[in-house]
Queue: 3 jobs
Job 1
Amino acid sequence: MTRRAAVILAAGQGTRMKSPTPKVLHKVGGRAMLDRAIDAAQELGCDTIVVVVGEHSPAVGEHVKARLGQGAIAVQHPPLGTAHAVLAAKDALKDFTGDVVITYADCPLLSAATIEPLFDLHDTGAGVAVLGFEAADPGGYGRLIMGEDGALRRIVEAKDANDAERAVRCCNSGVIAADCRVLFDLLAEVGNANAKGEYYLTDVVGLAVARGLAASTTFAPEEAVLGVNSQAELAVAEAAFQSHRRHALMTDGVTMPAPDTVHLSWDTEIAGGATIEPYVVFGPGVTVEAGATIRAFSHLEKAVVRPGAVVGPYARLRPGADIGKDAHIGNFVEVKNVKVGEGAKANHLSYLGDGTVGARANIGAGTIFCNYDGFDKYETHVGADAFIGSDSALVAPVTVGEGAFTATGSVITEDVEPGALAVARGRQVNKPGWVEAFRTLKRANRKPK
Ligand code: UD1
Ligand code: MG
């Protein structure tokens, strides 16, 4: 198979985002747009990926370095246009032979499946392949100018277009593929005599055709190639992502009575047969297995919910929460780094942090796992079938044995052996008639006004 490479353009300033965070590190579906572009390139089987970054945002370079290594960074300075940006990647591709695709790091919905047909270059005999779309409002996009035979002849940028060209609605998404050597040969010829005084990548199409090479086009829905330039457009991309993912989950058999209120992450996994009630937020890293129910207004992050378990309403699962089969986590219960056993219940107002809860154990209302002393975290282990009385404070490290009870209101600082009852609270004393005696004394001592 022909080798594949990707050049991801990320050197734009992103000034319209008006944010100290570089544009391409803003997230869609909880994942940085840049990472989504890299994911797509990896999914396409690109063995070489180069990200073109500007000098103005070192955070972008750091991000690329952490994920792909220093070799994947090409710096473009100053930014003189998209062709100039691709040329910045030339050195990083000097040992590469094969096909290369250019993508943008600010197109968060661009998927490998949408790009894949561009790689049919050799089958279609194309020198360059362009991903186009029909724009509802072509505005500032580059226009795809076709010949009488319907084949792509050149791309004209909006600022350079005449009225007839401006009326064309077939636009350039920006994604272009070509044989690597052919591409750099063409790029060497690109000039900047145009309205913006920039080196346009899009000029390679006209240059290819002039050399007798064919230019092919593949079309995608506009939504699939959506670019982000502002916070408002980021929200539009997010909405499109959410809608797409929810739809896919429902297609897979997930019940979601109010899908528009459910917020998903890029990697949320929900099995068919699970139910997600309204207003549930999934942070990254959540798996919900078949037959589980996430009730309304719950927030989950890096957690697993096993078959038949019920979480919420108003529950919070934090990283490391593993809710066992048929277990119940109820309202205002927070679980962090705790494995909750099969059929266990914590139905009301509790904090379970760091430890384990055995199968069928019952955690009473208001229970707290006191896991932190300001320096270190410690674990609490509650055995199978244990019963933790309401308002118990379990001071970690501590273990409550299988089938043990803790009395309501106890502060448990020592391990409780299996089957034992632990009472750790002041004993109640009732003083009959005390109130009347107290009042009588007070009234007698009251000074006249
Ligand atoms: C570009 C295309 C246009 C297309 C549109 C789709 C060109 C000349 N035009 O226009 O045909 O319809 O995208 O959105 O290619 N970048 C760099 N270095 C630069 C300039 C840009 O890395 O010197 C990066 C930007 O960060 C961005 C991408 O390239 O990721 C596109 O640049 P942008 O300035 O947005 O191009 P458009 O004018 O939108
Ligand atoms: Mg743009």
Note: The longest strand covers residues 328-340.
Job 2
Amino acid sequence: MTTNVTVNQWIKEVTELLSPDKIVWITGEEEQLEGLRKTAVASGELIKLNEELLPGCYLHRTRQNDVARVEDRTFICSKTKENAGPTNNWCDPKEMYQKLYDIARGSYRGRTMYVIPFSMGPIGSPLAKVGIEVTDSIYVVLNMAIMTRVGNKVLEVLGDSNDWVRGLHASCDIDPEKRYICQFPEDNTIISVNSAYGGNVLLGKKCFALRIASYQGWKEGWMAEHMLILGIENPKGEKKYVAAAFPSACGKTNLAMLIPPKYLRDKGYKVWTVGDDIAWMRIGQDGRLYAINPENGFFGVAPGTNEKSNFNALASTKKNTIFTNVALDLDTNTVWWEGLNKDLPKNAIDWKGNKWDASKFDKANKDTYAAHPNSRFTAPAVNCPCISDEFDKGAGVPISAIIFGGRRAKLAPLVYQSKNWANGVFVGASVSSETTAAAAGAVGVVRHDPMAMLPFCGYNMGDYFQHWLDMGKKLGDKAPKIFNVNWFRQDDEGNFVWPGFGDNMRVLNWILDRCEGKADAVETAIGYLPRPEDIDLTDLDIDRATLESILAVDKDAWTAEMDGLTEYFKKFGDRLPKEFTEMIANIKANLK
Ligand code: GTP
Ligand code: SPV
Ligand code: MN
């Protein structure tokens, strides 16, 4: 409870709208959360897992129609359609409020309204911001208590301020036809109805920390980005930080927690995780760009996570973790997913709640999978063996390099460096990537996803590109260097060419060396590329010709890519920075 007038007024309004039987304020105390876990287990909302093997861990299954973000039902309700821009669904705020209120009205009847005060960023950090989410789902409360900092302390730092984000979540009937995820950036308000899954309902995450915050950053002169943040410590003990934007399910969590190859570990290289999904970045007093991770946990993709691919992520899930839509191994009362190990469980329940028949498992048929391809773990960041000392400090870490990337079977080389900040902004804006299971819809279709922010930019993306250019002008020669990477090149048989995962450290080292002017490169039409000998291949079984194949710039394919980009950029009309058109013309001329 609080004496904040704006908070109390809003709680009164939503109470009248939703008609809950009871109101419970989330205090942040462990005792209260433990009581909620017990209630959820009793109702079947959560399944308690093996306390010895997975202490404090639970499994939750969502409805089969509610397993991912829903981009076609996500709206930016700014006053004018132009301000939402050509890449967002838009609806007039008045109309949308009315529609959502009609859907949500009375829907908490017979239920409890949980009020969750939460902080994005360490409580009280000058870079942190406060939100309040009301929900009728204990699953949401428990996930928010892992993913954000919740409770009374948040209300204390908020004081009498009106600078907080309103988040209303109502599960309703989980009716996909009435599902809406709506942001009202000018009102600091989010309303989400008829879903109970991840990014649709943990309103601190994509809705606030990206869609609302990107709008705030535009207005206030900072940046909210879909980026991991990691620290690389060299043998001298010096730490450098990089931020990287890849689309959903394209390797942020993996890169953020990577374990360097043995020959680099032996030399003393270490990697520290600051964040795995979202970065808020501001220009610091020394003129450099500083980043914080506004989250407090990881909502990570389960399938493919194993001891070898991502040891640190797996270790993070060994206690106090909530698993969503993975399989339940009845013999051990633990969880399983495709890619965890080779021992398919013999006695398991799949993510749909049915007995799973391992003998019918067919890699090519997702219907036979035990875990949903977008099944996830919600794990506290403190569990991560390589969590950075800086994670919980509010000051942020100085960023040396910004990396963009996507999932491209062809074309995009392993790595290249942009020619300068403005060209780097163009490189980010030109990211295309194959769609993944993180959002409902077709998987594996190449689409434009500028800065990995297509589903998350809370305003006109033309203005967003301009904001990036303006930040570069303010940063001047202190601006991070900008790179592009692609871990996902495939050969003609569909195998990944680059080993990826921990071996991506070899590419990070080239990137950092470039930042310090210590590594060579060749200038090409698209940017600076390493020569094959510039990437350290110690202990790696990859021949030079193979490496050359993913470091080549195919002139015809790149010319076609530039033509596609020209078409795509047309949708931004006069809001498209003029620089971009000039750069495309330049690249095409240089490709000839
Ligand atoms: P969101 O949480 O949706 O934002 O995803 P993310 O960007 O954090 O992706 P994540 O690290 O969870 O990786 C998604 C998938 O990509 C997993 O199946 C990984 O195994 C796979 N992956 C990650 N890094 C690499 C890599 O370097 N090479 C290959 N081939 N696959 C990778
Ligand atoms: C993503 O889709 O980028 C995620 C998962 O990180 S969700 O929280 O569902 O958005
Ligand atoms: Mn994400």
Note: The chain is about 30% helix and 20% strand.
Job 3
Amino acid sequence: MIQKIGVVGAGQMGNGIAHVCAMNGFEVRLLDANPDSLAKALATIAGNMDRQIKKGAMTQEAKDAALARISTGTDFAIFSDSDLVIEAATENEAVKREIFKKLCPHLKKAALIASNTSSISITRLGASTDRAAQFMGMHFMNPVPVMQLVELIRGIATSNETYEAVKELTAKLGKISATAEDFPAFIVNRILLPMINEAVYTLYEGVGSVESIDTAMKLGTNHPMGPLELADFIGLDTCLAVMHVLYDGLSDSKYRPCPLLVKYVEAGWLGRKTKRGFYDYSGPKPVPTR
Ligand code: NAD
């Protein structure tokens, strides 16, 4: 049974995963290569829990207890008693492989590993570990405390026991799972990211401004966020990485990343997390940049 959960990567997804696990009674160990990210993650979790308290979704006592269940560190030895480690580091296969290389020697034999990757082959990531049968994809949505879905992805070598244990955990976290086969970007991002990339092409070709594209899609298709606003929310580096995985993995030119998306990432304009993407977030209200 999964009781102690490790999380690698304390960025926007890692802090949300730690939040939801701790809130549901699990002991959490959170690791990041960058100690500043760990301090920032704890502050974000506390702030997001305060928001839940205001909404009546959590009590102050529950918040204090949940925060006390989270410990942080930069050394993989913190995972020696974890039953499951969820990897939520940067969307880069080399980075993830390096993490698994450092992680595996510290794990119990029975420990499971899940990756929160948005797009990278679970089979290939699993094969880079010492436990492909105990490895699978557990794709949370952003923001994790708010979004209901977790996409579950079985690699070709993932055992049924691993799949069932992670599925049961997903339900205990109060989430609903949908199962996807291990093909590039799975279900959600296979459909969502080409739409976002097309929105960037629409901007690049001058069909519409940032504001008109987002307004058209919000009001015209009843989406809660426009595609460019959503791209900034996801992170433009992550969006580009997913498009590369689709383009390389499916060898179809319809997935070519828009050159404007590439340029924004090259400029370091990664969206909300860097305060600039298709919108400028430095003031009180997001301002369209084109
Ligand atoms: P992020 O940039 O906010 O955070 C990534 C974190 O990983 C950073 O804190 C960074 O310091 C850390 N990191 C990088 N290399 C590391 C290493 N070697 N060891 C330990 N920590 C390391 O990114 P994010 O948006 O949280 O995305 C993380 C993962 O979640 C990616 O695989 C992404 O595809 C996936 N994901 C993202 C979203 C989204 O909407 N952003 C949604 C679902 C899944």
Note: The radius of gyration is 19 Å.
